[in-house]
Amino acid sequence: MKRGFVWPWQQRPNRFQVTFLVLLAGLAAVLSAQSAKTPASPYELARACPRGACIYVQFRNLPEFLDLWNRSALRERYLQSVNFDQFQKRHLGIKLLERFDEVSLALGFPLDSRAFHGATQNQAALAVYDIGKMEMVFVAPVDEATFKASVFALNQDHFDHNELPDGSVFYTTQMAVDRDRQKQNFLFSFCKGKLVLATNTSLLLRTLANLNGKNIKDRLSDEPAFQILTGEINPHFVTSWIDQQKLNRDWYFKEYWIHPGLDKVKGVQAGIFDFEMQADRWFEHRRFLRSGMPAAGPLGMLAETEVERLRGLLPADIPYLRLQPFSLSAGAPADAVGTVFFEPVETKTTVVKKSWGGNPFGYSESWRDTWESSEEDDFSYQYLDYRYDRQIDDEAETGQSPPANFEKTKVGLEAAYRAHFAEALREARPTMQATLYSPEFLPQPLFANFRKAVVLSLKTPGAVKTERLEQAFNELIQARLALPQSSNHLQWVKQNQDGVSWVELTLPELGRKLGYAVHRNHLIFSNRIDLLKSLLLEKAPARLNPNPNGQWSEVTVVQFDQGQKILGQFFEPLETDKFFSSEVRGLLDVSREVRALTLKRRSLPGRLVEDLEIGFVSGQP
For the segment 163-193, what is each residue's pLDDT rounded down to a tens digit? Predict the structure, then answer.
């Protein structure tokens, strides 16, 4: 070492160095304090749950959630309903009830809402890993006093005591379930201020490792789809995340939970559902990851201010309303208007084969008539007859050959209708379409009918070519009637009544009238003149509070209070299980506090955003 060399720590600090060290220490103190004040992640409990869950549910306050459910009139109505009674008698309900009874018997205490109410203070989370085996993990932050007072700690003598090398303690017991056909574990532990329950030893040990910071790569919160979706939703009362791709591979999910509609969710990778409660309404915020765009991409976006302005002009007693962007090039508006005047045209008839009710034994078609005419069984009423969906133009049904070029003529008329419909509206510049449905009760032996209408918002309503529009409708009528015929008898007549005017067409073949009207900046079509008139009459402006930045691909409104009035009339004379009327009426009774549902949807590349608003008649249900 050279003489005179002095190491830095041997030097006498000067004023600048002292000042620097003081500032450095102060900065460290500030950063330490800020770190201590940093709030935990709103999905902190997902850090404790292992990866691989197909369903994750977290509660902001589980005791409050249980109290709300136990006090609600909805719960009482549902438990007394025909629907719940039928659910208990079906395979899924029987299996679930049996499993809870078997678990409670093995534990020595009932595993019910009271057990979870007493074992949690506020937050809680449940992660499900296998639906069929009911493998799951439950995590709830609690203090030591709450844990010791829980039914789990008070009954620990019924469990085997286990201790891990790091000092973590857990309790386990094995029980026979599924009518003694399989064994399942039930485990619990109190670790790092959290109560952990599990039905699988591996899941419990992985959860304890996460809580002890030993397995940072095995957290549910690290799943890429979980990170993306939770980053878009601020959790409220209850929040649920699902791995849809994993659910789609689950046999129990496909067979018992979503059997008829699996195709509708095949393109969904994952989803998140968040429930927010306000004074007289609930909100459900939904976000989905999906594989690209759907087959038919969005036509455009609806401004929420325009949506609410149009809703304010519509009658309040319309049970169903759907709003969409308008695009002449897509052809959908022509289809929508055609469906208002006539039922949709089926291009292909498909016979659905059942395990019974189809042709289960491979017999010839003649077996159907023999079976259906039998008075010894009642099977013929379980499903619609196999001939129900045949078109009246079917040669096999009529026994007559159609006229020459019959199908070609009908196809040509449909094409002409679409072309002339687009030409009539192109310069009027439509921006939005609203589709309305209102069922009406018909006296016996008839059942019901639907009053339907389409309302188009126009930028230049004076540019509608009404002559071309009527020509298009005439071509549509000719195409949809049984046999093409001359349009000379199709006369559109202008009518005036109660200060409003419209144009109508009488169809003696159908026993009804069709009508349309240009009113202010709207073009309205309807299959019922009374509905058309109600849409034309002035209404008091609604007090609306739309989000000025809201942009949606589609908005659907279901007025439950209006629908219940009408549907109640439908099923009252049909009190028979053959028509499932008792179950339908039961659901109507359970949901009678629901006033309206409003579903707003936004379609984006790789994303689907939905916001559902549930309004109640008076306060919470």
Answer: 999 889 999 988 776 666 777 788 999 999 9
Which residues, other chains included, contact 461 with Cβ-Cβ below 8 Å and sequence gap of 6+? Answer: 428, 518, 520, 521, 522, 523
CA gap 113, 352 in Å, rounded = 42
List C-alpha distances in Å: 486 to 23, 48, 128, 246, 493. 95, 74, 64, 57, 18
- Residues of the chain with pLDDT > 70, as a percent, come to 64
pLDDT band at 229 (very low <50, low <70, confident <90, very high): very high
- Cα–Cα dist 240/28, whole Å: 39
- Tokens linked to 530: 């009374």
Please tell me what DSSP assigns to residue 255. I
- CB neighbours (10 Å) of residue 231? 11
Distance CA 144, CA 149 (A): 9
180 by DSSP, 3-state: which?
coil
Burial class (CB in 10 A: 0-12, 13-18, 19+), 558: middle
- What is the pTM assigned to this prediction? 0.75
DSSP 440-496: EE--TT--EEEEEEEEEEES-GGG--HHHHHHHHHHHHHHHSSS---STT--EEEEE
Q: What gap in Å lies between CA 515 and CA 421, rounded to an integer?
A: 15
Handedness of CA 187, 190, 194, 195 (dihedral sign): positive
